[in-house]
Amino acid sequence: QLSQAKWQVPPKLQVKFMSVCFSVTDLCALRTKAVRRFCLLLLHGNCDFWPGDFVMAVFCPVSRCLAVGVRSYSRQATRARFVDNISLIGACCEVGQPRLGTRDAPDILRDLGIVDYVKRSGYSVVDNGDIKDDPKLCGVVRGVKNPVAVGSFCRTLSERIAAEKDKFHLTLGGDHSMALGTVHGHATARPGLKVLWVDAHADINTDLTSPSGNLHGMPLGVLMQGLEGAFDNVTGLDWFERKLRPEDLVYIGLREVDEGEVEIINRLGIKSFYNTDIQNNGIRAVVDEALNILQPSVEQPLHLSFDIDALDPVFAPSTGTSVPYGLTRDEGLHICQEVARTGFLAGMDIVEVNPALGSKLDVLKTARLAFDMVGASLGLSLDAIQEAQDEFEAVIPPVTAKYGATHFVTRDVGREVEPSVGDQEVGEKPAAAKASLKKSTATF
User: Fold this and answer.
1) Is the pTM of this model over 0.85?
2) Which long-range contacts (CB under 8 A, 24 or more apart) does 12-21 make?
3) CA separation, residue 26 to residues 35, 66, 255, 300, 434 (Å)
4) How far apart are alpha carbons 200 and 308 in whole angstroms?
5) What are phi and psi of 128, to 5 degrees?
6) Is 155:175 a contact under the CB 8 Å cutoff?
7) 65-91 tens-digit pLDDT
8) Which 8-state DSSP code applies to residue 34?
C-alpha cells in the first residue's frame, strides 16, 4: 500500500526534509537510488514522493552505521601527533620525466605563500631550502632514463628525512620520482611505515616492465618488497633498500595503469581503488576502507604521497601526465581531511605541479589546489581553507611581476630532459635542452 501511495509535502517542509536527508546521507556516505531520488524530487520542486523513499532515506543510513561501525565517522578533526614541527623541503627534481618545469614548482609555491599559509594556521614551520637534481648526471642505463641523476638526488633527500625522525616532513615536488627519497627516508626512520598513494598512475613499473623508462613511473617498483631482481645492475639505484611491504600500501584514484603494473599489483595483492570504485561507492566509503586496511598508528604512522594529476585536469591542468575523469576538488579534500583525522600522518609529498605547462590561470588553479590539499592534510577546516583564498589571490600580482610574464610556457613547446644519445651511462644535457630550460625559467 505504501508503494502505491503518495504524500503531499507542504512547501515549507520541503527544505527541512531535504536538509535532514542530505545531512544524514552525507554523514553515512550513503548513495542509494532511493536517497538520490528523494533528494532530487525535493530539489526540483516536486512535492510528490513515494513514502518508501522516505523510509529508505531514514533507515538505510542507520543500518549502514550498524554494519560498518562508527569508527570512521567518530574520528574527530584533530591535529596529527607529528604535525607540530614541520620540516619543509623543496624537491627540485624534473629528470624523472620528460617535461621541464617541475623543478621550478617549489619556488613558485613558496612565492605564492605556502610557508606563511602553513604558519598562519598555527604550525611551527622550518623551511629547510631545496635539494636539487643535477642535469649533468643525465643518461640512460639499461633502458632506465637518468637513474644516476635521480638516484643521487633521492639519496640526499632520503638521508635528510631519515635524520629528522621527530619532524613532520612536507616535501614540495618536483616529479614523482622524488618519492624514492621521501618514502625511503621516512621508512628508514619509522619501520613499518604505511603509505597512501593518491595518483592517476600506479608508479610501480620496473626496468623490466616500463614502456617509457621514466623513473617517475617507477618509485614504488624500486621500494617494494617482492620485486627482487628488478633494477639489478642499474647504476645509481643500487643503494636503495626495499623498505615497503605490499600490505602497507594502498592506492586511491588510479585510472591509467600499465599492463606490467596490473600484473605486479595483482601478484602482490596490493589494495587499489580505481576511479570507477569511487564513482560506484563514493569517496567516503573508499577512504574509510583504505584507512581500515592501513591501520596507521604511532609506531607505524602514515605517509601521504599526493600526485596532483590524481585530480581531474579540469581542476589541475598544469601537470605533465594529466588523465581525464579524475578526482574532483572535494574528493581530494575529503581524502586529505580523513588522513588528517587519523592523527597519524607523519609526512606528505605534493608532486607533479608544473608551472611551465598551461596558461597563467592554469598554473594558478593547480597551485591553489596544491595549497588546499596541504591545508586539509594538516587538519585545516574547509572554512579555514576557503578563508585563505583571499590571501592567496593577494600575492598573485607581485609573483607575476617577479617573473615578468603575462603567461607561462604552453604545452606545445617541445622539451626533453634526457639527452637522446642512446644507452650511455652518464651524459650531459645537449645544448638545445639547456637553452630550452633557460627559456622556460625566464618566461615564467
Assistant:
1) no
2) 14/42, 14/45, 14/47, 17/42, 18/42, 18/43, 21/57
3) 11, 16, 25, 30, 52
4) 9
5) -90, 20
6) no
7) 443 333 333 333 455 666 778 999 999
8) H
